[in-house]
C-alpha cells in the first residue's frame, strides 16, 4: 500500500502520520469553507469522515452550546480525533466513533448540520450515502461539503491515479447526487486554489 492510500483509510504508523498531516494541512481550506456555514451556537453537528479531529475542534468552538459528534471508518483516525478532543469528550460535548457513512449509527432527524471535509471522494455509493446524511438531518438542516479539489484542474487527475478508489467530483456532479437524495437549495463556492464548498438544505 502506498503512503497516499492513507488519505482514504489511515492505518498503522503511516496512517498516524497522515492524520496529523491532514489536521495541519487542511486547516486553511476548512477555515475558508466555514465562511459559508453559520451554525447556531447550540447546533447538533455530525462530522462524517472526521479524520484527525481538527474540524470537530473547530465546530465545537462555533457551537459552544451544542454537541459535535464524529465518525470515521479508520481506527487510527478515531484514536487521533479522540485525543485532539479529549476535553470536550470528557465534558459530554463530543463523541467520536468508528462507523461508515453507508450506515450511520444515529436516529433519524438528529442533526442540524452534517459536515464532510475532504472525504466524499472516498464514499463508496454517493447517492445512497447522501440519502443516509439526509435521513439523520433535521428538516431544514444543512449538509456541508468542503473539498480541496473541484474536479476542474489537471492536477486532480494525478491524485485519482495515485489513490485507489478516489473520485473527484465537480460541483455540478455533487448537485445531481444531492438533489437525487432529496436535498434542495444547493449552493457552491469555489476559489482560485481550486477549493470547493457545497451546501445543501433538507
UniProtKB/TrEMBL annotation:
Pfam family of the protein (one): Methyltransf_11
InterPro entries linked: Erg6_SMT_methyltransf, Methyltransf_11, SAM-dependent_MTases_sf
Domain spans labelled Methyltransferase type: 46-145
Keywords for the protein's UniProt record, in alphabetical order: Methyltransferase, Transferase
Protein name per its UniProtKB record: Class I SAM-dependent methyltransferase
UniProt source species: Agathobaculum butyriciproducens
GO molecular function, one term: sterol 24-C-methyltransferase activity
Cleaved signal peptide residues: none
Amino acid at each position: 500500500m502506498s503512503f497516499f492510500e492513507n488519505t482514504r483509510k489511515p492505518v498503522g504508523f503511516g496512517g498516524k502520520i497522515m492524520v496529523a498531516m491532514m489536521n495541519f494541512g487542511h486547516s486553511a481550506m476548512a477555515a475558508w469553507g466555514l465562511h459559508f456555514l453559520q451554525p447556531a451556537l447550540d447546533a447538533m453537528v455530525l462530522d462524517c469522515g472526521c479524520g484527525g479531529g481538527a474540524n470537530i475542534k473547530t465546530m465545537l468552538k462555533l457551537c459552544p452550546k451544542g454537541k459535535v459528534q464524529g465518525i470515521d471508518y479508520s481506527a487510527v483516525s478515531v484514536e487521533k480525533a479522540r485525543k485532539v478532543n479529549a476535553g470536550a469528550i470528557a465534558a459530554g460535548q463530543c463523541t467520536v466513533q468508528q462507523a461508515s457513512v453507508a450506515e450511520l449509527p444515529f436516529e433519524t432527524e438528529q442533526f442540524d448540520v452534517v459536515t464532510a471535509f475532504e472525504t466524499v471522494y472516498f464514499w463508496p455509493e454517493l447517492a445512497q450515502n447522501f440519502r443516509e446524511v439526509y435521513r439523520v438531518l433535521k428538516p431544514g438542516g444543512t449538509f456541508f461539503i468542503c473539498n480541496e479539489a473541484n474536479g476542474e484542474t489537471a492536477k486532480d487527475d494525478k491524485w485519482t491515479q495515485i489513490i485507489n478508489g478516489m473520485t473527484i467530483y465537480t460541483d455540478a456532479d455533487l448537485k445531481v447526487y444531492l438533489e437525487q437524495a432529496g436535498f434542495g437549495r444547493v449552493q457552491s463556492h469555489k476559489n482560485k486554489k481550486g477549493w470547493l464548498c457545497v451546501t445543501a438544505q433538507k
